[in-house]
Design a protein that fits this description.
Chain lengths: ~375, ~260
């Protein structure tokens, strides 16, 4: 994502064919294009060939531990809510080879030259909460002393086509976290899908010169289109779940609350919440060799604070109980992340609620532990 | 082949289906490299050539089901520097541990024409219930890559990279859409150790628990969710009573849904 220059801003309107051409152009310019695609039971973010792969007319019903695809009657291309996993998969893959080395005769080793980087990626359909998550990971992997050059390169090259939500899922709480539903920054192109009796179009606004170039041929949007787009995103502000981020900071100050035992009795320590969370960044490093021990590789793999190995130090794991692991997760998301990065580690996407097999709800747990009168 | 001294490998079989040993033979590409690094001293499934112990590494498949097995495994232990058990039979008693919940004499009477010839224990138990074990490799059958990793680690004197966490983490790494959440399918993955390569969830099925309990299995919470998804107590009972029925956590959970 290149830096925005506001004077490039142009608001245009594309019809479905126009969107198809737009994606075709991206592919022609060498991008690997990722976007929403229906995969048997869910809409996932994956490589797409063109606009025909977009999940026309598919929606999703999401609540604690529950996801079901639903047919929509409006043929919307971006009406599926959120995919099971965010763009972390593309920007920070679950397995990354850090290096490969070969033993030299007589001692020492040689490093294999790194593989050439993959072609740049284009993401179609990035929601406001997901843009916020990308920005938070970019801070983790870039702004401090230990930048991750791979992440930074992939993000800098990525072309981001954001989509404004027209409705929230029952699990969404971006409005509480101040991350959405309106898309404000961090995009090359921002789309808003408009569907009524007479038309099905996309209001497309450029956020960067690169984005503006892509929209050069598109028709300018009328003031009515622009107004309609603003109204669409207003609908998504109506949300079922709420979280008070300021109050939730007190989580870390309540390590002995009885609620920890109650949530631990329900929690499977399966790690699904951390895996689907678009901001969770923890990894472990694994070394592998061939049988002779002549060739070695070092891999970085996603890890989770719900595993016992995560807190293993000399002599054993520190967090042996489920309550201490659940506490680590939620306090990191809502409390100690602020100490580290001056913002919360939660963007309110609700994925950890949907994809927790037993439907543990971060908003309910935070409210109960910080005494906000809900349970 | 080089003249240097290669560690001696032995592969033993107790009560089992041979599937785990076959996994080793199935390592086609890697098998040649393996034979360059180890000397296969005892592996009846692969060769009739037998060398006397002691052995540097013993892989043990199968569970203990007869008085003779008990004597034999003690001998194997004595002869082995490293003893690694492979598969659900060796690590938990296997599917044949279903006998532990019933009267074995009844089975014998039903199945055999001459029950008097059958000399068997009333239980099928893990190798580690009888002798100290250095590493337990789970699975029904074991995963080929994990098997090679364990041998590799043993040969190179390091800890194997075999995670003890849930199958769910492996589903998420592979980008598999959760069966429980997206389809309401009963799945033992949250309480099962990863390692199979997401065979069942990757094919739209729930996990059957072939790799046994994960490090901190909350079977009660999972059972509660399975009931909420519409499974009966009987279904839950049967889910926990398969290849790892005699693993502690699974046995206790199946017992409470009698
Ligand atoms: S959390 Fe907000 S931005 Fe994200 S999908 Fe829901 S409504 Fe859209
Ligand atoms: S903690 Fe949950 S709601 Fe918050 S960003 Fe992570 S997955 Fe989304
Ligand atoms: S919540 Fe856990 S897995 Fe996620 S970033 Fe924090 S420590 Fe890492
Ligand atoms: S909160 Fe839910 S998803 Fe997270 S570890 Fe516990 S059971 Fe698994
Ligand atoms: S399919 Fe089963 S193992 Fe995979 S994430 Fe879902 S509950 Fe876990």
């Amino acid at each position: 994502m290149a830096k925005a220059k506001r004077d490039d801003v142009a608001v245009t309107v594309l019809d479905k064919d126009g969107l198809g051409d737009f994606i075709k152009n991206l592919r022609k310019s060498g991008y690997q294009v990722f976007g929403p695609r229906r995969d048997s039971d869910a809409v996932i973010y994956d490589l797409i060939d063109g606009a025909d792969d977009l999940p026309a007319g598919w929606g999703s019903e999401q609540k604690g531990g529950h996801y079901r695809l639903r047919r929509r009657d409006d043929g919307a291309l971006f009406g599926y809510g959120l995919g099971p996993q965010g763009w972390k998969r593309q920007l920070y893959p679950p397995r990354q080879k850090l290096f490969a080395a070969t033993r030299k005769e007589g001692g020492g080793f040689t490093l294999a030259p790194p593989a050439p980087p993959d072609p740049p990626m284009a993401f179609i359909g990035v929601r406001a909460c997901e843009l916020a998550a990308i920005a938070r990971q970019a801070k983790v992997f870039g702004d401090r002393d230990f930048a991750d050059p791979g992440y930074q390169r992939r993000l800098a090259e990525a072309l981001i086509v954001a989509v404004q939500c027209g409705e929230a899922l029952d699990t969404c709480f971006c409005a509480s976290m101040g991350t959405g539903p309106e898309v404000k920054a961090g995009f090359d192109v921002k789309l808003t899908e408009l569907i009524d009796e007479s038309r099905h179009v996309f209001v497309a606004e450029a956020g960067t010169p690169r984005g503006a170039k892509l929209l050069k041929a598109a028709k300018p949007a009328s003031p009515a289109d622009i107004k309609a787009a603003a109204q669409v995103v207003k609908n998504a502000e109506i949300q079922q779940k709420h979280l008070d981020p300021a109050a939730a900071r007190a989580l870390a100050a309540n390590p002995e609350h009885p609620r920890w035992d109650q949530v631990a009795a329900r929690c499977l320590t399966c790690g699904n919440c951390t895996m689907v969370c678009p901001t969770c960044f923890c990894t472990t490093v694994e070394d592998v060799t061939d049988l002779k021990g002549d060739n070695a590789e070092r891999w970085r793999k996603w890890d989770s604070c719900f595993t016992t190995d995560f807190s293993y130090i000399h002599g054993g794991a520190v967090r042996t109980e489920a309550r201490s692991r659940y506490r680590q997760w939620i306090t990191h998301k809502l409390s100690t992340w602020v100490d580290q990065f001056d913002e919360t580690g939660c963007v309110g996407c609700g994925r950890c609620i949907t994809w927790c097999p037993v439907g543990i709800d971060i908003t309910e747990e935070a409210a109960a532990i910080t005494g906000q009168g809900r349970n | 082949m080089s003249e240097r001294k290669r560690p001696k490998l032995a592969v033993w079989k107790f009560s089992s289906c041979d599937g785990c040993q076959l996994t080793l033979l199935d390592c086609e590409d890697e098998l040649l490299a393996l034979t360059e690094e180890v000397r296969i001293s005892y592996f009846l499934e692969a060769t009739r050539k037998v060398e006397k112990g002691p052995y540097d590494v013993s892989l043990v498949e199968g569970s203990i089901t007869t008085p003779h097995d008990i004597k034999a495994i003690r001998e194997v232990r004595k002869q082995s520097k490293l003893l690694i058990t492979i598969g659900a039979c060796a690590t938990a008693g296997g599917i044949q541990a279903l006998r532990n919940f019933k009267n074995v004499k009844d089975f014998i009477r039903t199945v055999y024409a001459h029950p008097e010839y059958i000399d068997t224990l009333t239980t099928s138990t893990a190798i580690s219930d009888h002798v100290p074990v250095d590493f337990e490799l789970r699975g029904c059958p074991v995963n080929k890559y994990q098997m090679l990793e364990v041998l590799n680690a043993a040969l190179n004197g390091r800890k194997p990279n075999i995670p003890r966490h849930s199958q769910c983490i492996e589903c998420k790494e592979s980008g598999t859409v959760c069966r429980m959440v997206a389809a309401g399918t009963a799945c033992l993955g949250p309480v099962t150790q990863a390692g199979c390569g997401t065979l069942c969830p990757g094919k739209d099925r729930g996990c059957y628990g072939c790799f046994g309990p994960m490090e901190t299995p909350n079977t009660a919470a999972l059972a509660g969710q399975l009931l909420a998804l519409g499974q009966t107590g009987r279904d839950v009972h049967r889910l926990f009573r398969t290849y790892n029925a005699n693993a502690d956590a699974f046995r206790k959970e199946s017992d409470s849904h009698g």
